[in-house]
Automatic annotation (TrEMBL):
This protein's name: Protein-export chaperone SecB
Phylogenetic lineage: Bacteria, Bacillati, Bacillota, Bacilli, Lactobacillales
InterPro entries associated with the record: SecB-like_sf
């Protein structure tokens, strides 16, 4: 049995707003991803969200929260919560991708499918940005 248990997720916020005037450009649209970890004893809460830039014909913003439990007695490698951060994001990201794809698919615009992300690299970059901003 794994040392971490995924207890499910919930949608905290979901907004979609079409722009009245938009000139379609053939460029790649950009989006932002953000995260937050909250650890309380053997429980970790993870928030993962996304929103798009102004290059879209609409604005969207989605925030989900996943709940995880840590079972110390089953952690034979002693990795703890900190090492599990990338796994937690990797578990939640497909839910976020699905929500964005479904909401945008029912609009008059083309559905948005967020690309897959290497969460280990994503966290390394986020940690580096945080370290640089503190210096």
């Amino acid at each position: 049995m794994a040392a971490f248990k995924f207890n499910g997720f919930k949608v905290l916020r979901m907004n979609f707003e079409a722009k009245e005037k938009f000139v379609k450009d053939d460029q790649n649209y950009e989006f932002n991803i953000g995260h937050d970890f909250s650890i309380n004893g053997t429980h970790m809460s993870v928030k993962l969200g996304t929103n798009n830039t102004n290059d879209f014909p609409f604005k969207y913003n989605v925030l989900i929260q996943g709940e995880f439990d840590y079972v110390d007695s089953e952690d034979s490698d002693g990795i703890g919560f900190k090492a599990f951060r990338a796994n937690a994001l990797a578990i939640l990201f497909p839910y976020l991708r699905t929500i964005v794809a479904q909401v945008t698919a029912i609009s008059e615009f083309e559905a948005v499918t967020l690309p897959t992300i290497n969460m280990i690299q994503y966290l390394e970059n986020a940690d580096l940005r945080e370290t640089n901003s503190q210096n």
